[in-house]
Design a protein that fits this description.
This protein is an alpha/beta fold and 481 residues long. The chain contains 14 helices and 16 strands. The longest helix is centred in the middle third of the chain and has 25 residues.
Length: 481
Amino acid sequence: MNIKVYISGLKFMMCNTVKRLFNGDVQFIHSLDHGIYGVIDSTTNINKENLDKIKDYMNKMVNDNIPFHKKIVNKKEAYNFYKNKSNYEKAYNVLDIDNLVVSMFELEGQYNYFYSHDMPASTGELKYFDLYFVSDNKFVLVYPFNGKLDFTFRSHIYDSFNQYDEWLSKLDINYVSDLNNIVAQGKVKDLIKKNDIMVDNCLYEIAKDIISKNKKIILLAGPSSSGKTTSSRKLSLYLSAYGVNAIPISLDDFFVDRDKTPLGEDGKPDFECLESLDISYFNEVLTNLLEGRETKLPIYDFTVGKHTETDETYRLDEDDVLVIEGLHAINPRLITINPDLIYKVYISPFTPLGMDRHNYVSTTDNRLLRRIVRDFRTRGKDAEFTISTWDSVRKGEEKNIFPYTDTVDAVLNTSYSYEIGVLKVYIEPLLLSISIDSPCYEEAHRLLSEFRTFYPIPSESVPEDNLLREFIGGSIFERNK
């Protein structure tokens, strides 16, 4: 069963349980490791004991093997249904759907919509789940990953999500409908500026912390399409503004020649493993810089799959620092030097914006949209290629970066509340071009369906130093600028 269908079933089952036991509702806010962080709205305090009661009742529903039923309704009927329940954000989303009909699902007399065309046949298929207690009324719904329950509470990432969520709440932006209202009122330029200031301020604080701790090597890591290149260059600028010269280095420039890339278990090139980097060459360059030698840095040409040295030489003086970014930057196997010299930063677009109270903007999907747009623009790869290789990319992230996120000194959230609207303009034609005969067709149209309620936002309002420019083009940090 598709994991997204499985998760939709779990969420529906939990919503029904909370309604039945405590006459409450559930807000699913964002992903966290292999789980979904959420808050229970109820007049009853949901402590650990009551959360266990919810889990026990959900297990009873699994044993009872209750069927899910699909019901096709017209938009007006769905709109009135949610409006009468005071689920206004769901009602507004229904209005913004292009289709004339909506696929709703029924479970024990309760109806809901989960941006999915499918549900499990019955609750009996949802045997594997857990509820992790965070604090009163706050939980994580854990779902199976690779056939098992494997959840770790990532406190740094949790805090970063909450910080962003609190900021959006102060602006009265909780759901896509709130964002669309800002776009419709012609106020999106102000939101873009505010959001940019918030993200840039986080970078300033990290720069100040690095300087106060007198670090020499800054390792900045993040999963694919998290904005590592722009973040490292902006961090270098902010450090320079404090009088510290920063030399940015991208680990992507240290890939081995493409024909030497190690093969994965599937027999295909594994571009996500640590060994896809020329670690020996990287450490040679790093040693030369740390010892004060003039050193040339490589540039990797992704179109031909080889790297070349630049003509420009670099030399690390006493007050200089290195800013090294890449997927493997915080991997302890990458370099072995005095850890007191190192400052680690983890970045990712943690998106707390909700589609509605039961559906959120997936961080993983957000990154996939970014990657599709960038791959097409800079690497000549179509959307079908990017989608077909995404599972391999995700497996590499699970293995090579996520286990080390709790070892970092700082977390930078590189999400923009408005970015789906900007990316939508670029992504729709790329996804629509995928043939119905393609194995990627279903995934492409899932993405189109999931983000169809976002109003498009013109990119002209996005500044040249904005991280999104790394994907849509026009960044001042591109090498030819």
